[in-house]
Amino acid sequence: MAGADLKVLIVDDSAAARALLTAAVETVAAQLGRTPLITAVGSGFEALRLLPANPLHLIITDINMPDVHGLELIAFARQHPLHAKTPLLVVTTQSAARDRDKALALGADAFCPKPVTIDELRAKITPLLTGAPRP
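The structure assignment produced for this chain is given below.
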């Protein structure tokens, strides 16, 4: 997308979740006056292939995926110099406290349990993109 100044990677094996997350990012980008380039993939493996060559402004991932687990993706991103500080949001059905704590310990910046509304997503995404305090 020509002129995109906000690059976001969405990783979720559910097409419906990818669509909801995309809509939330597009809404926040419009509110911030930014032009998004959103890459939405259906597996952690696809994300691992994309991360080394693509600087991003935000990564959103699920935890429970069939190939590469979201926690592995978080660890990989945090160990890669390009993404060591890229804001990272976990949106997942794995909502037990231990799952949240593990994701945050690995370097996720925010955690949002599913089911989730677009308003809840916007509330999590906005501070990650603006550097504002997180809810």
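Interim note for the steering committee: The longest helix spans residues 15-32. Residues 6-129 form a domain with the Rossmann fold fold (CATH 3.40.50.2300).
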